[in-house]
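Quick start: what a row looks like.
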Amino acid sequence: MDNGIVLAGNLIVDYVKNVSCYPKPGMLASILSRSMCIGGCAANTAIDIAKIDAGVPLKSIGMVGDDEAGEYVLSMLERNGIDVSSVIVSRGEETAYTDVMSDPETGERTFFHSRGANARFSYEHIDFSALSARMFHIGYALLLDAMDAPDNEHGTVMAKTLARASSMGMLTSMDVVSESGDRFKDVVIPCLRYCDYIIINEIEASQICGVAARDMNGKILHENVESSCKKIIDLGVRRGVVVHAPEASWYLARGGERVCMESLRLPAGYIKGSVGAGDAFCAGILYAIHQGLEPREGMRIARAAAAANLSSENSIDGMRCLEEIMALEQMYGAGR
């Protein structure tokens, strides 16, 4: 197949507000600062890869509204050299947006999301005849209503989409949104057998498998995360499972190869926000797969990309080129 990565799915505008605290109901918190930035899998991950290596051909596929926010999304993608010819502008709808409440001291954030045009984006909106790439990545499952809908043959429409991309010879991968509830069985699991890779966080891995990722005190349970990786392989993922958490990340190949790597040990005051950190990690992994790198090297790039992201309040401004993010890896690396 040709070089390049297609990134399909959520296109969002994030309105990030740094707050003094997250208040209890009826109480008040101060907004310390606010900013506007692009968000969503098909935007964040694409732009992050472009910043890591501008030489990788990238195409975003999704749907925005015919509004100012939609124009902003398209302009941001184009500014970063990403092909937007397959992004659909839906007349009369608003672009999806998220109000992100972020605690600047901890980097923790809370999301209030409006699905907007993303809710309609589906299989029929993708012109597969116009796609020629090495990889096809889609996300987020559980946040794309039409893609999450049932499909009689494949289980869900997203599974059908992944199956079509796979039939064209593209490596396929997906990302998932963190959500409470029991939809993972019906929405996520049917997609797994059409994925070469799945790249998710420890919460999502836990939800897929029903295995706790943390103990009662919030401490990460490494053995349980590794067990979840094995269960996800058993559910059908064809090449590899990648799980990331603030403390560490894990890779398990279908053939049995394992990598567990601590996150970079960042100094106090380094973290400005964590919006888009998962997308940044995902960008590092996708870039490494596209370049044919070994899993351990890919994990090093991914944790460095996530660390770069944490240096900014929004989803993309912290990302740097490969040489610069790997300098972070050398400076703050642990557990190599």
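That is the whole record. The chain is about 30% helix and 25% strand. Residues 5-20+32-332 form a domain with the UDP-N-acetylmuramoyl-L-alanine:D-glutamate ligase fold (CATH 3.40.1190.20).
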